[in-house]
Amino acid sequence: MSEAPGPRAASRQFVTFWVRDEIFGVPLAEVQEIIRMPGVVRVPRAPGSLEGIANLRGAVLPITSLRRVFGMRDGPHDDATRVVVINRGALSGFVVDRMASVITTEEHEIEPVDALSGTIRTELLQGVVKRDKGMIMLLDPASLGDVREKAPEPERPTSPAAELPGMPPPQESGDGPRGGDELQLVSFEVEGQEYAFAMDDVQEIVQIPARISAVPRSEPHVMGVMTLRNRLLPLVSLRRMFGMPQGVPEEHNRIVVVSLGGADAGGSPVSVGIIMDAVKEVLRVARAMVDAVPPLLASGGRGAELDSICRLEGGKRLVTILSAERMFPAEDPLRLGGVGAAAQAEGDEGAAGHGDDMTNSDDEEQLVVFRLGNEEYGVPIAAIQEIVRIPEQLTRVPKTPGFIEGVVNLRGVVLPVIDQRRRFGLPDLARNDRQRIMVLMVGQARTGFIVDSVVEVLKVARSSIGPAPRLSDEQELLIDRVANLERQKRMLLLLKAERLLNMEEQGALAAL
């Protein structure tokens, strides 16, 4: 009579993969999925091992290179490269060179990692399994989730700020425009001429979509309609309205969405999108620098669209301020020969079909989107004081903190300027026409930050904004949220404007 079998030793399954010349494994139970290497968004001030973050079906997925974790030389990604997605309450992805297999091992086969001490980071391992084809190192997902490498330190002030020779100090009152004495404008270019709308009239600035639906028998300046967050937006060409030829839309063209006052049947503001050659700046100007339109231009109805003219740079630069209300008067709200009403009706019909997909303005956040390198960032529009071009030359001032690129005289006020590329550890970029200075109030210091380009002013549903994964202490302070625009296949890193400078740096700038 045979003996009954004893209790079977516990067995475990591991997913194994190659990282360079070594085989590693992670518990199968903690692997959510294995995916190809996706496009990633690089995150400044993150650990050096981080490849970036990616969109995984609406979730933000931080992706870490295991080569970098173990101090191995980086290699190119190819068709065999995979990302192993671990789920321990929060998702984490780890880049591996290629997959191996799924193995089953008995608990007693797992040996301690003492023998590997000094050759690899053993604190990340839970044991090793020896097989005929070699040794498999078993990674501890809990320890992998805690991998943090020190992010590069920002430059620190090297000396207290000095007085600025030849430039007046900031004025507390009198010289500079303040409150009701100033006007905020969004300026843009058409056929080399600069125009502007009052900031209060501009709802947002968006890129030209891949497809614009033409409307038959419409006015010549009507380009068609586009869908903007489940509503139809009529589009007109400012070039055609002003009797200029309209070419094929190009990448740098933008649509300025202006409010016409009032609301449609669904309670949404009545708006129209105006196609411009390029958006230039956000300006704050003293009302004293704004003149009425000369009577000759305003006569005969030909200058009805013109509201006023702004004189900048001692009158060498003239900006024509347009009136949205006069461009699209109430008796013909969109000057589209009925297209506006049709678009509104169709939009309302579509809204009824979308139900919960419709976004209330209270559920949106308005962001200024800018680019640094290959990545897009956003800051709340309320944090932006103005956006200006970079002057031909920044004034370098001796004995100022090393992180200051230079200073400019902005309407009699000294504005310190910081190159944000350097702050984020990106290579220097030669000055070009697309770069802008974004002026923000950081603490008590009014500061300009050089960015590669300002892309658009965008309204984003709050439901699309979530917390950024915690990758390093410095990154967490600077970038606390991510806007995941899944339909557009875009991901925006949202910056905390008040954290762009630390307290020591803010104090040094305040001294200027």
How is this structure best described in words?
Helix content is 11%, strand content 43%. The protein has 512 residues and is mainly β. About 12% of the residues have low confidence. The strands form six sheets. Strands 18-11-12-21-20-19 form a six-stranded mixed sheet. Strands 29-22-23-32-31-30 form a six-stranded mixed sheet. The termini are far apart. It is elongated, with a radius of gyration of 29 Å. Strand 25 and strand 26 form a beta hairpin. The chain has nine helices and 32 strands.
Topology:
Layout: E1 11-19, E2 22-27, E3 31-36, E4 50-56, E5 59-65, H1 66-69, E6 82-87, E7 91-96, E8 98-106, E9 125-131, E10 134-139, H2 141-145, E11 182-190, E12 193-198, E13 202-207, E14 222-228, E15 231-237, H3 238-241, E16 254-263, E17 269-276, E18 278-286, E19 290-292, H4 295-298, E20 306-312, E21 317-322, H5 324-327, H6 339-354, E22 364-372, E23 375-380, E24 384-389, E25 406-410, E26 413-419, H7 420-423, E27 436-442, E28 445-451, E29 453-461, E30 465-467, H8 473-478, E31 479-485, E32 490-495, H9 503-510
Share of β-strand residues: 35-45%
Structural class: mainly beta
Tally the helices.
9
Please estimate the helix content: 10-25%
- Output the radius of gyration: 29 Å
Runs in which pLDDT lies below 50 for 5 or more consecutive residues are 148-179, 333-359
Distance between the termini: 95 Å
What's the β-strand tally?
32
- Please state the overall shape, judged from the principal axes of the Cα atoms: elongated
Mean pLDDT: 78
Physical arrangement of strands within the biggest beta sheet = 18-11-12-21-20-19
Profile the largest sheet. 6 strands, mixed
